[in-house]
Structure formats: structure tokens, C-alpha cells
Amino acid sequence: MTTQTKVVFPGTQIGTEEEYLQGEGTYSRGGVIIATLMGAQSERDAHITNPRSPRQIRLGEPVFARVDDAFDPIMLLTVKPISNERVIYPMPSIVHVSEAAPFYVDKLRDVAKVGDIIYGEVSKVNKLGTNITLKKPDYGVVLAFCTRCKKPLKLDNSGQRPILKCTAGCNLPEGRLISPYYGNLRGILERYKVENL
Ligand SMILES: [Zn+2]
Question: Was domain 5-49 assigned CATH 2.40.50.100?
């Protein structure tokens, strides 16, 4: 039997816990199941599959990552390399505050918050773990969620500098290191000539 699949991106809302069983490659927030990987979504449950055999992550490799936890001076990540190959990496995977922006930052909360999806590259990899750097102008947060209602934040370019606003209208200041690719995950894939992850 074949099941129909569709391709999803990290941060995609797959459905609710009433509709789907939460599977591998997803997490649940407020009853809503959200993809953490890019890959093929099964129609029957919410797990994301990618069947190719794995290789080790490489220095300089571009990645998406979800921020799982943040406590200065590090953020803990779940990493998804921007590659058609299946890639494994030593855990834990982190961003250190010294590599969290192209300029000096004091606090990680000004860069990204738990649940956000960031775009960066591997700056160190050894048996102790994998470091991701955001020290290039293209890097930063590419998808963020409201700290109050958890809905996706929309980029507002109408002011002097870009800001993020809640699509549900919460009026909280949402400070992030905003990548020029914010909301444009497809554009990042095209940059690396990757069709789908
Ligand atoms: Zn909100």
C-alpha cells in the first residue's frame, strides 16, 4: 500500500492532536503538531521521513535549526542540514553567544527565542558536539513565534528597520536577529540548489 505524502518545512503546522498522532520529526505546542524537520509528511500520522543513508555533518555546512532551550551563554538546538543527503551530527548542538550575531550581543534573548527556526552554518564539529554560528549577515532567525500566543510572527518592513509582529495582533516587542531570508525558506533552498529536504 502506498500512502500519499507532501513536503513540509520546519515550523509548518501539520494539524492538531485530535487529527494526527504526533510522530518523529515533529513537536507539539498547545495541541498543535509542528514539523521540526524538512521532509515528507505521511498522510496517516505526523511523522516526517527521509529514507537515505546518513553521513556526518561537515564544517561550514549550512543548516536550519530549532531553538530547543536557551540559557546564556548557549542555545541548545535541533539541527537540520540544508542538504538532500541524510546527515547526522554529534550532540549537543549549540550556538554560543560569541557566535550568535555578526556583531557583539550581550544576551541570547535578543537573538532568538525557544521554538524559533534559525539559519546558520557549522563552525565546529567534534565528538563533544556541534557548534552553529550566526556570524554572517545572511544568518539569523527565519521563522519565529509570538512569545504570548505562539502564532508565527510576520516581518514588517514598513518602518526604519525590519520588525516582527504577531499575526494574531499581540502587541509585544519581539526582538530577534532577523535574517534577510525571514519567511523565505524556499529562497534558502534555491540558494543551495536543494529542492526539498
Ligand atoms: Zn501573539
Answer: yes
Cell numbers representing residue 80 in the block: 537540520
CA-nearest of 36, 27, 28 to 9 is 36
Closest CA to 141 of 115, 169, 161: 115
pLDDT in tens, 2-19: 444 566 777 777 777 766
- The Å distance, Cα 154 to ligand 1 centre, comes to 10
Q: What is the CA(78)–ligand 1 centre distance, in A?
A: 24
Q: Same CATH topology for 5-49 and 54-142+177-191?
A: yes
Query: What does the alpha-carbon distance between residue 112 and residue 148 come to, in Å, rounded to a whole number?
Result: 15
Residues 150 and 136: beta-carbon distance below 8 Å: no
CA 72 to chain CA centroid, Å, is 19
Contact 47, 25 (CB under 8 A): yes
* Tens digits of residue pLDDT in 51-89: 557 889 999 999 999 999 999 999 999 999 999 888 999
The CA 66 to ligand 1 mean position distance, Å, reads 19
CA of 149 to the centre of ligand 1 (A): 4
